[in-house]
Specification:
It is a single chain. The chain has 228 residues and is of the alpha/beta class. 40% of the residues lie in helices and 17% in strands. Bound molecules: pyridoxal-5'-phosphate.
C-alpha cells in the first residue's frame, strides 16, 4: 500500500472544499477541518499537525488519552464518540469540544466537572438508523431547552453521522434536515445555545455536507489514512 503524505491528502481536500464552497457560494474560511486520528499512530498524528491541522478528533476514551499524552495542547481536541458519564472526569480538562452530547445525564456530569464552559454539539440521529447514536430530530429543541440551568454547557451546534451509502440525494437530504433543525434552534436565540455550527461530513461525503452548510467536517481516512 502506498501511504500518501498528510500534506498531499490535505491539498486535495482543500481543493475539494474550494469546489464545494464555489458551488454553494460559501467561503472556505467558514469550514474547520477536524483531523480524525483514531486509526493512526502518534507519528502520523504529529505529521498531521505539521501539515497545518489544528483540530484533532478521537472517538474513544483510551485512544484520546494515548494521543493527548504526547500531543497535549499542540492541537484543539474534539471528542466525537460516545461518552460515558463516569468517564467525563478523565477527559474534561483536556478536551475543547464535545460533539456527542445526547442526553441530560451527560450534560449534568460535564456541567459539574468543568470549570470553564464547555462547547458542545448535540448529536442528532437524522437517518433514524438504529445503530446510530443521537436524539431524534423532534426531541432536539426540547432537549436543548432543558439544559438552560447548566451554566457550564454551551450548545454551539448540531452534529450528525450520515449512513454509509452512495446515494447522494439521500445524503444531501440528511444534511439539509440537520441544517434546518440548526436554524430552528438558532432562531430561538437561547443564551446557552447560540447553535451556529454544523458538524457533519466525513471522508466520503464532506463535499456534499459543505454544500449543505457544514462548518466542521470530521475527516479520518482520506486525510491521515488508516494505517494502524
Ligand atoms: C471515525 C469517525 C469519523 C471519520 O471517519 P472517516 O470516514 O474515516 O473520515 C468522523 N466522525 C466520527 C464520529 C467518527 O467516529
Amino acid at each position: 500500500m502506498v501511504i500518501m503524505e498528510v500534506v498531499t491528502n490535505l491539498n486535495e481536500i482543500n481543493s475539494n472544499i474550494g469546489q464545494a464552497c464555489d458551488k454553494s457560494n460559501r467561503n472556505p474560511s467558514e469550514i474547520t477541518i477536524i483531523g480524525v486520528t483514531k486509526y493512526v499512530t502518534i507519528e502520523r498524528t504529529e505529521e498531521t499537525i505539521n501539515a497545518g491541522i489544528k483540530n484533532l478528533g478521537e472517538n474513544r476514551l483510551e485512544g484520546f488519552l494515548e494521543k493527548y499524552h504526547y500531543i497535549q495542547d499542540q492541537a484543539s481536541w474534539h471528542f466525537i464518540g460516545t461518552l460515558q458519564s463516569r468517564k467525563v472526569k478523565e477527559i474534561i480538562d483536556k478536551v475543547d469540544v464535545v460533539h456527542s452530547l445526547d442526553r441530560k445525564s451527560l450534560a449534568k456530569e460535564i456541567n459539574k466537572r468543568t470549570t470553564t464552559p464547555m462547547d458542545c454539539f448535540v448529536q442528532v440521529n437524522v437517518s433514524g438508523e438504529e445503530s446510530k447514536h443521537g436524539l431524534s430530530p423532534e426531541n432536539v429543541l426540547p432537549f436543548i431547552s432543558s439544559l438552560k440551568a447548566f451554566e457550564n454547557i454551551r450548545i454551539v451546534g448540531l452534529m450528525t453521522m450520515a449512513p454509509h451509502v452512495e446515494n447522494q440525494e439521500y445524503l444531501r437530504d440528511i444534511f439539509r434536515k440537520l441544517a434546518s433543525l440548526r436554524d430552528e434552534v438558532r432562531n430561538e436565540q437561547l443564551v446557552h445555545a447560540p447553535c451556529n455550527f454544523l458538524s457533519m461530513g466525513m471522508s466520503n461525503d464532506y463535499q456534499l455536507a459543505i454544500e449543505e452548510g457544514a462548518t466542521h467536517i470530521r475527516i479520518g481516512s482520506k486525510l491521515v489514512g488508516s494505517l494502524k
